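Dear all,

This email documents one entry for the complex benchmark we are building for the journal club exercise. For each entry we list the sequence lines for every component of the assembly. Then comes the predicted three-dimensional structure of the complex as a token string, followed by one or two observations. Please use this as the template for your own entries, and keep the labels exactly as they appear.
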Amino acid sequence: GNSVTQMEGPVTLSEEAFLTINCTYTATGYPSLFWYVQYPGEGLQLLLKATKADDKGSNKGFEATYRKETTSFHLEKGSVQVSDSAVYFCALISGGTSYGKLTFGQGTILTVHP
Amino acid sequence: NAGVTQTPKFQVLKTGQSMTLQCAQDMNHEYMSWYRQDPGMGLRLIHYSVGAGITDQGEVPNGYNVSRSTTEDFPLRLLSAAPSQTSVYFCASSYMGGYTFGSGTRLTVV
């Protein structure tokens, strides 16, 4: 079956530091890949997505590239801000769509200090 | 405002009690689903529905029932609450444009 593995957290950074959160997946076929963000006390919001190999998703300074050869979708940001403190979830949907069953990683807590 | 509305936001139940978590969306999405969020485990799919009158089980369906009589509503029922059901529950709806999540229900079973 499908599975998503994220790097262990929590991750603590200083403001303006570089961020990488690793994500690898196991899935049949060609899944769509997503990063969701959850701010304290809120639901999940889509941060970015990629639906085919070598696609790069980007939003709010965050980027992730769909790497089929390494089955990875690592999240990066060049300079984090305190407001980026949140929980980040990597997820996939089989079949290359955006509305099937989502399979989530365990989440990575990010804390950014001034 | 368009979106997914969940009620209540917080609930405390005693073991053995029953309750219904409400979920409504106004985007005419066919696909709706319920997830539970537990520390270190991400979100796990409980039940989902691909349209009115059609429901199916997800990864962790035991202890929960759902029904989908209209496109807009997708309630989740706990028949006999257990402490293992203490969690944060999220409802979501989706269509071609992706998922919209509700703000969650924090449930504690004592």
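Observations: The mean pLDDT of chain A is 92. Chain A touches chain B through 20 residues (CB under 8 Å).
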